[in-house]
Amino acid sequence: MTSMEKLDILIVGVGGQGIILSSRIVSLAFVRAGFDVKQSEVHGMAQRGGAVSSHIRASANVYSPLIPDESADFLLSFEKLETLRYLNFVHSGTTVLINDQRIDPPSVAAGKQEYPEDIKARIAKKTKKIDFVPAAAEAFALGNERIVNSILTGVLAAYLPFDKKIWIKTFKETLSPKLLDINLKAFEKGLEFKKNF
Predict the structure, then answer these.
(1) Read out DSSP for 15-58?
(2) 95: helix, coil or strand?
(3) Which residues share a beta bridge with 14?
(4) Is residue 79 domain-resident?
(5) What is the DSSP letter of 183?
(6) Which letter, b or e, does each residue of 151-160 get, where b requires 16 or more Cβ atoms within 10 Å of its Cβ?
């Protein structure tokens, strides 16, 4: 086990972005690093692009799978607007990592509501530790728009105290061989982002 006492990570976005797969990879990496881990998922019409969230709690002993309000160490958001939905978990020490991608919810697509333009300002009222990641653009550059989740997993991994070998082993155990190479490239790309923040 690492020297960190506990970590609470909330991963959020919309259905179809690969949030659950990323959560499983992160959870398994914690297990490989010697933590007790609890994971809880909420799918909210995930098949239709509805909100999806996953709580990951890691410590020497974890007793509840759900992160309390204002207790997340990290909020990893796969879509900008979805970040606002989970601000109640953020406090001044939370690191918020956001995929710089807009996916209009049904209410916005139907013209009933407007997509907010002040997302960063709203988050900044809770924490100053905010980084936007052009994960969708990077995935497109790598030739596969479905690997956004592996890029974002890499971004998060850069903040966590695990040996890179743990992550690679976890990817190998989780993904089929035909998907492994491109997802490991995406993961490596995500790891590089923290150097630029």
Answers:
(1) TTS-HHHHHHHHHHHHHHTT-EEEEEEE-TTGGGT-EEEEEEEE
(2) strand
(3) 51
(4) yes
(5) H
(6) bbbbbbbebb
Task: Find the helix packing angle between 19-32 and 148-157, rounded to 10°.
Answer: 30
Domain with 65, as residue range(s), is: 6-196
Residue 30 and residue 4 in contact, taking contact as beta carbons nearer than 8 Å: no
Residue 133 tokens read as 């990641």
**Residues in CB range of 77: below 8 A, 6 or more apart:** 11, 12, 13, 83, 86, 96, 97, 98, 99
Rg (CA), the chain: 16
Check pLDDT > 90 for residue 108: no
- The tens digit of pLDDT for each residue in 160-172 reads 988 999 999 999 9
Interatomic CA distance for residues 73 and 80, integer angstroms: 18
Could you tell me if residue 60 is inside a domain? yes
Assign residue 37 the CATH number of its domain: 3.40.920.10
What are phi and psi for residue 14, nearest 5 degrees? -120, 160
Using a pLDDT cut of 90, give the percent of the chain over it: 77
Question: Is 103 inside any structural domain?
Answer: yes
Whole-angstrom CA distances from 106 to 14, 44, 51 are: 12, 14, 11
- Quick one: pLDDT at residue 157? 97
How many structural domains comprise the chain?
1
- Asked if pLDDT for residue 46 goes beyond 80, the answer is no
Q: Is residue 164 part of a domain?
A: yes
